[in-house]
Amino acid sequence: MREEEHFFDDINELFVEAFETGDNTLINSLQFEGDNFVDYDAYSEGGIKQIFLCTDRRTGRRVAMATLKDISNSQKVEAFLREAKINAALQHPNIVPIYEMGIEEEKPWFAMKFIAGKSLADIISETKNLEDHNSNFSLSHRLDIFMKVCDAIAYAHSLGVLHLDIKPDNIRISNYGDVVLCDWGLADIEATSCDEKLLEFCTILEHDLNNQTLDGSVKGTPGYMAPEQTSLVKIRKGRHTDIFSLGTLLYSLLTLDKPFKGFDIQDIIDTTAKCDFIKPSKLQTDLPDSLEAVCLKAMQLKPEDRYQTVEDLQKDIDAYRNGFATYAENASFLKLLKLMVYRHKLRSGLVMSLLSLMIILALVFVHNLDLSKQFVEKENEKLLLEQDLYLQRGKDSAPLFFERAEESLKVFDFQTGLRFCKEALERDNQMKPAWELKAKFNFAMEDYQECLDSLAKAGVSKGRLINLAKIALLAEATDSRQEVRLDLLRRLHSFKDMTTFSLLLHNIIYSDISLDERLEFCQYVIGLRNKRTAQDAFNFNYDPQTQSLDISNNPWIKIALCLRNFPAKKINASYTSINHGNNFMSHHLEYLDISNTQIVELKSLKCKNLKSLNISGNIIHNLDPLEQYPLISLDISYTPIKYLNFVPKIPTLKQITIKKKQFSRAQLKWLRPDIELIEK
Q1: Could you tell me if 40 and 182 lie in one domain?
Q2: CA distance to 293, 594, 623, 630, per residue, from 644 (Å)
Q3: Would the pLDDT of 606 be above 60?
Q4: In which domain, by residue range, is 170 found?
Q5: Is residue 497 part of a domain?
Q6: Same structural domain for residues 75 and 157?
Q7: Separation of first and last alpha carbons in the chain
Q8: Which residue has the higher pLDDT, 10 or 42?
Q9: Deepest of 1, 38, 445, 464, by most Cβ within 10 A of its Cβ?
Q10: Using an 8 Å Cβ cutoff, are 481 and 488 in contact?
């Protein structure tokens, strides 16, 4: 049965209930036990979520319900809920509405309107296979669809929301012609222009802070994404990104083909980054020049060469449809004259002298010029009033951006914090605490001249940060970057300024330095941060073939934060005095030996690709944090662990090493048959 027929059956039952007498009243139909949503049918599946069709028992209508496939990944849960919240904040006829959201058995879900129909991608594909492309999908119909998508994006931009994944697959056309833009999973918020209610979504996700690798990652759909969405073009994403994607959508509507194609994903990304695509007119020879000009302007490589707003793009489409020249084509006078004659066919058919035509044109020109002048004057007056209002409102919101910058500093997110600092100063450039905070970001990011300039604007003329920035600036002229870094760390450590020391250290360990520099840096910092006598040996060996680091048998080492993000797959830190797992935070690490150390808990250990772990000889009790890792082997011998109930929670586990008689026979029953048990 078609979904529309199912819906009308539900409506029919509702009317029958409405006119039935007795106790079966409408008010009773709302009083029921059990779940509100029933009769689930699988509909579609995406990257992180599944879509089901179900019946809302209160209204009797069929709705679409999105659920998260994998709730064990906290990043995916956060992204799923963020998509639902942003989508729910957008109320527009061309944006799919969210009805309700919640959590059932720890699994988040949200219900939305079900659009019975097809995706635009399916319609384009079907039309492409027809001999007569215009028979069921005329150019005028395509432009109608495009303008409605533009309406949705223009509305989202007015609230500071970016879609960042505009493509035919995310646009649905109902059986009755409604156009709806779906899937806001990659949506982002522009902090500088968003509604204050949406500013809360412009936060730093926990997985961003743990991995420090989001900047430059590819986010979008190959074939329709903008160059700045690839990792090859260093341009900040913004409204211009959506405008580029609207251009790719217009390209597909005009040519019935994708703008960017290649042999594989990387090839498509490379052509996207270079904005290398076939012109629409080479695929559709009868394509109007005006529409091709609009499409090409929207798909310019540089953001400043594209349309600056969605409304500007729509104005050009309207100009074409109404017989006017578009701004994108930079039409000649003859083209303008030709279009004017075409717009007034009946009038142009009359016999008129050349002189009369020129007089009419002159009068129209003068009249339009006068109207334009009056319009410009009024717009200037309006702009001045809006600027005054904006400045006042902007100054009031400066503390909010300053607070965001302070939060970013606490979690070492320098790029985001510096951006928030700049936003605060754009609204109130006399805000001295913001200048001082910006100076700290500049120093941590090793931009010492900018640090001094920021301190000067903050009115700070002396202090440790100024002295260190001046020393570093002078040293950069003669010494290597590595020598400058080590000298600054030594000075900060001698001053016991561990806050600034940590900021600079964190920037260095996540910066792009060579392996030799990293090894020298780690040995120096470990020696600096730990008390070591002249008699203490220092075991520090790195094998580049196996990517293994050995710092074992150094009982004097307590702190080794410089090993975060270290490019090693294996680290042996046994028989040291290290007491915290965050010293080894890294996505490279697969094998870790922390046996016979001072580490007492594993919650601080953040190594998402960890496969082998040795905690023998430690006083660790709780193994629950290991559920998030793809562990294959685990050594828990000579620990106080007496229960094996953690084993079912680690499905990848294949080998466990224990001490003889460490566990009772009842506990050994928790082991799966495929797990190898080693006793020592």
Answers
A1: no
A2: 68, 20, 10, 17
A3: yes
A4: 118-347
A5: no
A6: no
A7: 65
A8: 42
A9: 445
A10: no
